[in-house]
Amino acid sequence: MTSLRLPAYYLSHGGGPWPFMADEFGAQFDRMAASLREIPGQLAAKPRAILVISAHWEELSFTVSAHPRPPMIYDYGGFPAYTYQVHYRAPGSPELAKQVQTLLSGGGLPARLDAERGFDHGAFTVLQAMFPAADIPVVQLSLQASMDPATHLKTGQLLAPLRDEGVLIIGSGMSYHNMQRLDPKGEQPSRQFDAWLLDTLVKAPATERWDRLIHWARAPAARLVHPREEHLLPLMVAVGAAGDEEASCIYHQEDLFGSLTCSSYRIGNGQ
């Protein structure tokens, strides 16, 4: 393993534009924020670029953002007016976008470029906490609308060479995402699924990960936790990019929104 190889991450990205709302949310996201701030110190080198696979972008075929100065996408509702004026001013990277397109297309997964796409909150929330200076180029990759776990695992596998070129791969979703159960009704399902996810990523043999993730809907409380899988699929890309390397839980909280269990993971040591 080269000294430049970076780990891949699956990050729970919280609710709405929370990094910009300390007064409104109070300590709700303190542990999540602390875990994100620690990530730069876990890396063998500062990334030359970041590739984010966000739960908040879906396309019929994989699509890569290629805007050199990405605008903002305020894809949330009901928040204070100032949250529709916040900015994460990192540059884009049309060069990296083209490289991502080439890797995917060369592996049999058609991909296109989108020169207009901006940063959605699945990207800019975690990046604001991790790299507030916004001085690292960022490219986003969409999910593919089939929502097929195996396809997204293969996507990560095809993108794995980027890790040796200083590109940090981040899958941004939520380990718990049922908007109808953001209350005590979600307490037990979130704990059950979170325990399965920890066992799958950290405790079970790495050789079993792909099969378990492909069949994730068989996990305890799976469809109560993820009625729709878009917030779990970024994990598949991160796992595919890291292969059978060791995984660790870098964030774990059992009282998010009062009663929910939520986690984030690093896959690969990056050393």
Rounded average pLDDT? 95
The best one-word shape is globular
Computed Rg: 17 Å
CATH superfamily, by name, is LigB-like
- Find the structural class using helix and strand composition: alpha/beta
Q: Which residue ranges are poorly predicted, with pLDDT under 50 across at least 5 consecutive positions?
A: none
CATH domain topology: Protocatechuate 4,5-dioxygenase, Chain B
Enumerate the strands of the largest sheet in spatial order, edge to edge or round the barrel: 5-2-6-1-8-7
CATH arch. level architecture: 3-Layer(aba) Sandwich
Sheet with most strands: 6 strands, mixed
Number of helices: 9
Strand percentage: 15-25%
Distance between the terminal alpha carbons, to the nearest Å? 7 Å
Write the layout of secondary structure elements.
Layout: E1 8-12, H1 22-25, H2 30-38, E2 49-59, E3 62-65, H3 94-106, E4 111-114, H4 121-130, E5 138-144, H5 149-159, E6 167-173, H6 187-203, H7 209-214, H8 222-225, H9 233-242, E7 247-256, E8 260-267
Description:
This protein is an alpha/beta fold. It has one domain: 3-Layer(aba) Sandwich (Protocatechuate 4,5-dioxygenase, Chain B), CATH 3.40.830.10. Helix content is 31%, strand content 21%. It is built from nine helices and eight strands. It has helices at 22-25, 30-38, 94-106, 121-130, 149-159, 187-203, 209-214, 222-225, 233-242, and strands at residues 8-12, 49-59, 62-65, 111-114, 138-144, 167-173, 247-256, 260-267. It has a six-stranded mixed beta sheet with strand order 5-2-6-1-8-7, sandwiched between helices. A two-stranded parallel ribbon has the order 3-4. Helix 2 (30-38) packs across helix 4 (121-130). The longest helix has 17 residues, at 187-203. The radius of gyration is 17 Å and the shape is globular. The N and C termini lie close together (7 Å). The mean pLDDT is 95.
